Amino acid sequence: MPSVSTLSAADPAFLVQISDSHLFAEADGTLLGMNTCDSLQRVIELVRQQQPQIDLILATGDLSQDGTLESYQRFRDLTGQLGAPARWIPGNHDEPLIMAEAAVQSALLESVVDIGNWRITLLDSAVPGSVPGYLQDEQLQLLASSLSETPERHHLVCFHHHPVSIDCAWMEPIGLRNPEALFAVLDRFPQVRAVLWGHVHQEVDQWRNDVRLIASPSTCIQFEPGSDDFMVGEQAPGYRWLRLLPDGQLETGVERVTGFDFQIDYSSNGY
Fold this sequence. Notes:
Layout: E1 13-18, E2 30-31, E3 34-35, H1 36-50, E4 56-60, H2 69-80, E5 86-89, H3 96-102, E6 112-115, E7 118-122, H4 137-149, E8 154-158, H5 179-186, E9 192-197, E10 204-208, E11 211-215, E12 222-223, E13 232-233, E14 238-244, E15 250-256
Parallel strand pairs: 1-4, 4-5, 7-8, 8-9, 9-11
Antiparallel strand pairs: 1-14, 2-3, 6-7, 10-11, 12-13, 14-15
Helix pairs in contact: 1-2, 2-3
Protein name: Icc protein
Pfam families: Metallophos (PF00149)
Keywords: Hydrolase, Iron, Metal-binding
């Protein structure tokens, strides 16, 4: 596993976010009719074509659908094709102990990364046996400590569940259950530049005060933006790239695979 680049404080850092891959133990496993291993491979190929130099990959939860060691090993192998260091955080479908077994002898689960003139803090918002998320006290303490230790750095905070409304009524109850506790910490530290999450299987890019709030497509099925009830969108699988500039500015965009044909099968194993 490559180590994080030793960028100077004057260097921009280039990140790729891979999220919600929902892999199975079997390579032919499908979610609502989509082969999630195949769709992740397609996204990885797109990243390889578009991004020759990646400083860090952020995998923001739901790497696995079935929580098996085989699924995490497959995720590690597939993303390893990019030849870049990576960090993982769990989502509501993940099994943290199995994930840790798959990440053995690596830095994949380290929660704080200093890169360029930035610090990235990765939090665990998953609750065992629960779809909604919650940041436990130790996670909030980790965040506060990480922010207070390096006031001179710009900060990016990552976790799985959405902390604000994304205008999808059916997703309102399954986001972060204690966002006020999160923002109570973030509001104390003016060096926070952005918050990044997964879970919502769609592109989100908005602001809260001076903090950018960002979510990204899944590498498999997409959720239809603005839907009142559960609805799979026709958007193709994709990823997000982020360029963290030394002055605290953040450039970002979403890229999706092309020529991807997919027929939704609502009768198959559901989300």
